[in-house]
Task: inverse folding
């Protein structure tokens, strides 16, 4: 379970005195706890699902990528490097991401399998991709490829 992997990784990072990993993992666990609390208020006592945790981690990576770009434009290389180090820590908990070529192949195969013919079928194709490749691809890229293919 991803929750346990995160907690175990924090313990290991603390034992090895890895400051970047400790700080990043504490941020992840704090965000996870906040989301769990929000879910409990909605009546879901189990907290957020594994898929939601993966989505949260991808969102954290996206935030750090945006920050890295801003820091690099401002000439703050040390801050950009810190953000990049945090990205590397977070990525350890995500499934292997498909390359652009693999995403294109998956989109082509899925479009053919669901017999999508027009832009009206984008939703069906994306739903199939999300069920087959959870957490393994950038669905924004995939959506763009689906739309190009069906246009």
Result:
């Amino acid at each position: 379970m991803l929750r346990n992997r995160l907690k175990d990784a924090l313990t290991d990072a603390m034992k090895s005195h890895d400051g970047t990993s400790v700080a990043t993992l504490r941020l992840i666990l704090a965000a996870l706890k906040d989301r769990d609390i929000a879910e409990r208020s909605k009546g879901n006592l189990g907290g957020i699902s594994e898929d939601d945790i993966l989505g949260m981690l991808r969102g954290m990576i996206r935030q750090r990528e945006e920050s890295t770009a801003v820091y690099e434009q401002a000439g703050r290389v040390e801050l950009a490097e810190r953000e990049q180090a945090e990205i590397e820590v977070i990525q350890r908990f995500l499934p292997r991401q498909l390359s652009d070529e693999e995403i294109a192949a998956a989109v082509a195969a899925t479009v053919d399998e669901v017999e999508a013919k027009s832009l009206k079928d984008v939703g069906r194709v994306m739903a199939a991709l999300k069920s087959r490749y959870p957490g393994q691809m950038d669905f924004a890229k995939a959506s763009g490829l689906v739309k190009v293919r069906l246009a």
